[in-house]
Amino acid sequence: MGFAGISPLAHPSAFQRWVLMLCVPCVALVVVGRQIYLSRFHDLSTWKGGGMGMFAANDGPQSRYAHVYLVKPDGTRDPLNQFSESEADFVTRALEYPLRSTFLRAARAIAQENWMPMQQRAPVTVFDSRSEPLRAADESFHLMVPYGRSSDTEKRNWSIEIQFWKLFYDPVKKRAHIRLDQTFVFKPDELFERKPENSVP
User: Fold this and answer.
1) How many domains does the chain have?
2) Is 11 a domain residue?
3) Residues 187, 164: Cα–Cα separation, whole Å
4) Per-residue pLDDT tens digits for 31-59
């Protein structure tokens, strides 16, 4: 059986046979090397970049979390969690490859929403090691809800803070614990594109 436009290698030379035999393992080695490098030095999830080692480490989507906050000019911050499907996809992609540039794309998508605070503030609940609620802390926050999209970027002078958390397993203590890995703060000049003012002659 032949294919139009493709001449079969009826009698390949020894060099061609070696090239064909070495091609696949060489490509696999490149993929593995890239996966190891990005996972070790850039925190790429082992479930991405080719999936090499996806079953060798507990580093899947269930072990990475993001806390997103809207930070006002006075320093107060309120958590954001009601994301659209596209915004949640940006956050998930950033968690899989946690660079500032990937989280910036997520923050820009989230910043396009017109976030409105609810009137009543909600207290922060303190939990014990078994995830049982203990008490309400002194700190409280506004529940922020998206209310359409605003085109008036001049009034949006708030920042977005994204905390990247990871779940780690201690083989000695045989216990899992979560740890804050990185914190990214994006200022208004990064989030919004300012339109130049029209000059009046």
Assistant:
1) 2
2) no
3) 17
4) 666 666 556 656 667 666 555 555 555 66
Phi then psi dihedrals of residue 9, to 5 deg: -85, 85
Q: How far is CA 74 from the centre of its chain?
A: 27
- Please check whether residue 185 lies inside any domain of the structure: yes
Query: Are 99 and 32 in the same domain?
Result: no
SS (H, E, C) 166-192: EEEEECCCCEEEEEEEEEEEECHHHHC
Whether residue 143 is found in the same domain as residue 184: yes
Convert the pLDDT of each residue in 139-170 to its tens digit: 777 788 888 776 654 567 889 999 999 887 77
pTM comes to 0.69
* Shared domain check, 48 and 66: no
Q: What is the 3-state secondary structure (H, E, C) of the chain?
A: CCCCCCCCCCCCCHHHHHHHHHHHHHHHHHHHHHHHHHHHHCCCCCCCCCCCCCCCCCCCHHHEEEEEEEECCCCCEEEECCCCHHHHHHHHHHHHCCCHHHHHHHHHHHHCEEEEEEEEEEEEEEECCCCCEEEEEEEEEEEEEEEEECCCHHHCCCEEEEEEEEEEEECCCCEEEEEEEEEEEECHHHHCCCCCCCCCC
As a whole number, mean pLDDT of residues 92-102 equals 92
The whole-number pLDDT of residue 68 equals: 95
Do 109 and 167 lie in one domain? The reply is yes
